[in-house]
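Minutes, project huddle
Topic: does the predicted pose make sense with adenosine-5'-triphosphate bound?
PN asked that the exact inputs be recorded in the minutes so nobody has to dig through chat later. Recorded below.
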Amino acid sequence: MLQNAFTLESLLETHDLPFVIINADLRIVAVNRAWELSFGVDRQQQVGRPCCADSGRCRHRQLFQSLEGYAGVHGGVGTVPPELSFNVRGFPLLDADGTLYLGETLAPISKPTGAYSGPTMIGQSAAFTRFKSTLLQAAVSQAPVMLLGETGTGKELAAEFVHRQSPRADADFVIVDCTILGEDLFESELFGHEKGAFTGAAVAKKGLFELANGGTLFLDEIGDLPLSQQPKLLRALESGQFRRVGGTTMLKSDVRIVCATHRNLADMVKAGRFREDLFYRLSVFPVDVPRLRDRKQDLPVLIDFFLEQLGGRDGRTYRLNQQALIKLLQYGWPGNIRELRNCLQLAAGLSQNGVVSEACVHFMQPLNQSAAVEATVAATPERKPCLNSLAELEADFINSLIVKYQGNRKLIAAEMNISERTLYRKLNRLNLN
Ligand SMILES: Nc1ncnc2c1ncn2[C@@H]1O[C@H](COP(=O)(O)OP(=O)(O)OP(=O)(O)O)[C@@H](O)[C@H]1O
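Predicted holo structure (tokens), as shared on screen:
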């Protein structure tokens, strides 16, 4: 269900990546289990430490001043060695008392060479096997890949798979979240900036294009890239050259592009919202990512995989009883694999002695009404009116927040305890833009 606010504990373990919560005094309030495992530190050692060595001018301070979320490549937090770089996403959060915090996820931009230890794509169905072999073909082709699929189907995972299976596997896989890079951030994040290029540019910084040299640049949600920024991307892709903001020297970077979107880009081109030349440049190797409801044969292996993962995290064993399994199999999964993972996470938390019964299984309200209705018709037609009204309920709730915060997305997202990126998608799906 929608939450107006959060408790720190409830939020911590909803992130698979290392996740940190920082307060307005720029001190670490909490880190999650993934943090402990990734950096080999006890969470109690982190709490109370300053976020950064120079917290006078860090990104965290800036967020508390501007309430603007951020995404980009930055150094670590707390005791994480400063020389390590991460793909970082930060956003404002409000707790149940209305106190403002900052939440930040850190994803390593480069995995250790040698055996790949990243997330695994699970599946055995015919649809999944076809999909995986298409990805393998794409990986070796070196052509730009466009991954098309609903939210939560595993596009980011597929992009990383393409990179790991390609001749560029030993170089970096760099993620660009196009929903967060608005007009003002796009150029400096993608191409970097020189010292003094703008207020706050205290030191020169490499852009994501430069960091991905020799590797793969993953442009996630490319359909959300502002039209005004599209020519700049096209130019860099065609020439392989770019300038840092405030710089005069032309730089070169050899990157392989993989993109993903849940939007119909061809329709966007027709409507004049996406450049046709960029569309053709990026869509050389299009790949459809299958929806979970079209590969339900994979549910048992995916369920085992996630329960084992959760068990490892919690130091216990979880198992489903048969009624719970039937309930999961009958559902349409409009939010795909992400929704399955979240559903199991809640179910495991509610389980008694590790046994997940039918009563522990709860489904979220759908984000995408048409997908939900389609999924429900395929599975349990009698639930359709209920799902419709839930979507309406969600739209009503968001509308009330739009009025309350006069359309300020940062504050609405913070009150809903979701990222601005997720809010942006909800607004689009519910036609509230
Ligand atoms: N085949 C799979 N096996 C195991 N886990 C998977 C698989 N596909 C996706 N996941 C997991 O599901 C979650 C959602 O995947 P991912 O973020 O790649 O989806 P996405 O399509 O990029 O979503 P969005 O469009 O919302 O960005 C992640 O936790 C991912 O690890």
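Observations noted during the meeting:
- Residues 1-5, 111-115, 367-389 have pLDDT under 50 and may be disordered.
- The longest strand covers residues 85-94.
No decisions taken; revisit at the next huddle.
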